[in-house]
Design brief:
Length: 178
């Protein structure tokens, strides 16, 4: 265990040092390259701010308007019939949109149900088994100027659905149902 801790402590500094030494040996101006990369990073960060603001506003409106609660009224009977806890559904809906909002929901679910409960374990597994599809598409595609993202949305949402189903199945098999 101590060996693993030692490796994890030194891995990143050794990797960065190795890259700098290799670059210097190849006569690459490493500091100048680092500064140029930093300039590009700042430009990209500034260019994605409008996309982030738009997405944050949309999420806030969706949650504050009560649309999520209304959607739950219709979905709750269906998901309970197939054995999915209703508390998980808002997390499954928000997860493809915002990782931060999903993390907050996961924390709330775990605080309300406990980390060792079926719902708590399912929430934690779901948090780690899907991606923030709309965030990725909005930020990264927006940053490079890709406007046609229909197929990427379909594939991303399909992957999220598979992640949700896999989380429910695996947590049910490993930890049992409710």
């Amino acid at each position: 265990m101590a060996f693993i801790s030692l490796i994890s402590l030194w891995f990143i500094p050794v990797l960065i040092g190795s890259i700098l030494i290799y670059g210097t040996m190849k006569k690459v101006p490493t500091y100048e390259s680092f500064v140029e990369g930093g300039k590009e990073g700042i430009k990209i960060a500034i260019s994605i701010i409008p996309f982030l603001v738009g997405m944050m506003v949309a999420i806030s409106v969706f949650r504050a308007s009560g649309a999520l609660e209304q959607l739950m009224v219709f979905i709750r009977p269906l998901v309970e019939k197939i054995g999915i806890p209703a508390e998980i559904v808002p997390l499954a809906i928000i997860r493809p949109i915002s990782g931060t909002a999903a993390l907050g929901m996961t924390s709330d679910i775990i605080a309300a149900n406990g980390p060792d409960s079926f719902v708590g374990r399912l929430a934690a597994t779901l948090q780690g088994s899907t991606d923030t599809t709309f965030y990725v598409l909005t930020v990264y595609f927006g940053a490079v100027g890709i406007r046609k993202m229909g197929d990427a949305v379909k594939v991303g949402l399909l992957a999220d659905l598979v992640g949700i189903i896999a989380a429910v199945v695996i947590v049910t098999i490993v930890f049992g149902g409710k």
